[in-house]
Write a structure and sequence with these properties.
434 residues, alpha/beta, eight-stranded mixed β-sheet, 32% helix, binds (2R)-2,3-dihydroxypropyl phosphate, binds manganese (II) ion, cell membrane, metal ion binding, Putative glycerol phosphate lipoteichoic acid synthase 1
Length: 434
């Protein structure tokens, strides 16, 4: 295991991307961090109009705002752990497992060196999660203690009775509204994560929650048609949340990070989705499926004026080093497989959990290489083959080293400078923070 840990450290140290001085600690230092985990929210929703109406007008405004750094080539990298894989990647910058959910399988006993503990120990951040489902789903109540979360405001903190819930829990508008009393009493600076649920397969929504003037598609596939309706509802929920942030005075001293956790429409439905995207279903290929794995990443810093939409290719694995550098916190000492997207050394090859990958030039699906320029299968030149082999080798190595680290719980043996091992017994979510 010592040598296995050394293999991991050798890779992550050689793969480390140092901060971009222009962004390191200037724009976000000392701000609260609010993570908005947008359930099943895909990038194709951004800017999309249906019957002349924007599906997500508020998020569209946020995405283009001068106070946002938004990413149009940002991809989810989840496996079967879905939401819990996204959480793991964003808060540890290590991947989920090849099969199943890391949270469920390893989350109760593994040693984590995760965002809540790092931010607490380095900058005295309070940490909290807000989610309208029961605490035990995805084994969160145990995992969050290993991560060092001080608070977990799960379903037991809200009235989830009757039509206040839908699918996996409390409806998003109610989660945002009923949690403000907890959020505004958190000791600042805080790191608070909201996990939404309403925009979740099969995208049911009570009539009372739909907007009469938003008419969705009529592809004949209920999942696709309803997806736009619940995405529209989620957009309204975020808009309402921003109003609460403004009213409580939290907006101006917070960095709000919004991202889609993974796809909402699965490959099997994509042919019906193609019509809604104005594409010919008969021309739909694996390349198109891979391109739809984009989810939005919006880093919103109210008050800044130099935001822009970045073309950089990146994935969920890259968020933690990126956020920590924005906060002015160094990351070199931690085991992180991702790289700071603002860094000149940021690695733009994005690994998918199933060993597929995308880069600015290529899309690799089950070993077939497509050109991102033409969307067609490629006959590789010698030089292109060399590049593709290099990218593939890096993806395979990164995934296998991450699996070795997590499956063998190697962080037990790793002590980054100044990091105190988390004691999960310190936390009791039933009656708030000890
Ligand atoms: C449940 C919710 C489920 O709490 O997070 O999300 P999923 O993993 O199914 O996307
Ligand atoms: Mn999810």
């Amino acid at each position: 295991t010592k040598s296995e840990l050394d293999d991991v450290l050798k890779f992550t140290h050689s793969h480390y991307a140092k901060p971009n001085k222009k962004y390191y600690g200037f724009i976000a230092k000392g701000k609260n961090v609010i993570i908005l985990h947008l359930e099943s929210f895909q990038q194709f929703l951004i800017g999309k109009k249906i019957n002349g109406k924007e599906v997500t007008p508020f998020l569209n405004k946020l995405y283009k705002s001068k106070s946002s750094y938004s990413f149009r080539n940002f991809f989810h990298q989840v496996g079967q752990g879905k939401t819990s894989d996204a959480e793991n990647m964003l808060e540890t910058s290590t991947y989920g497992l090849p099969q199943g959910s890391l949270f469920a399988q390893l989350g109760s006993d593994n040693t984590f060196q995760a965002a809540p503990a790092i931010l607490k120990q380095r900058r005295n951040y309070t940490s909290a999660v807000f989610h309208g489902n029961v605490a035990s789903f995805w084994n969160r109540n145990n995992v969050y203690k290993e991560m060092g979360y001080q608070y977990f405001f799960d379903a037991s903190y809200y009235d989830t009775s009757g039509d206040r819930s839908m699918g996996y829990g409390l409806k998003d508008k109610l989660l945002f509204r009923d949690s403000v009393k907890y959020l505004q009493n958190l000791q600042q600076p805080f790191y608070a994560k909201y996990i939404t649920v309403t925009n979740h397969f099969p995208y049911d929504l009570d009539k009372e929650d739909t907007s009469p003037n938003f008419k969705t598609t009529d592809t004949g596939d209920d999942v696709v048609d309803n997806y736009f309706v619940t995405a529209h509802y989620l957009d309204q929920s975020i808009h309402e949340f921003y109003r609460y942030l403004k009213k409580t005075g939290l907006l101006k001293n917070s960095m709000i990070v919004l991202y889609g956790d993974h796809y909402g429409i699965s490959d099997s439905e994509n042919k019906n989705l193609a019509k809604a995207l104005g594409k010919n279903p008969d021309d739909w290929t694996d390349y198109d499926n891979a391109q739809l794995q984009r989810v939005p990443l919006i880093i919103n810093l109210p008050g800044t004026k130099h935001g822009y939409v970045s073309n950089k290719y990146a994935g969920e694995i890259d968020v933690l080093p990126t956020l920590m550098h924005l906060l002015g916190i160094s990351t070199k000492r931690y085991v992180q497989f991702g790289t700071d997207i603002f860094s000149k050394q940021h690695d733009q090859v994005v690994a998918f959990r199933n060993q597929d990958w995308v880069s600015p030039s290529f899309t690799s699906v089950s070993g077939d290489i497509y050109s991102n320029k033409t969307g067609q299968l490629m006959k590789l030149t010698k030089r292109q083959k060399k590049q593709v082999d290099k990218d593939k080798a890096r993806v395979d190595k990164e995934l296998s080293l991450s699996d070795s680290l997590n499956e063998k719980n190697l962080l037990r043996f790793y002590h980054p400078k100044g990091f105190e091992t988390v004691d999960p017994r310190k936390y009791n979510y039933a009656n708030g923070y000890q």
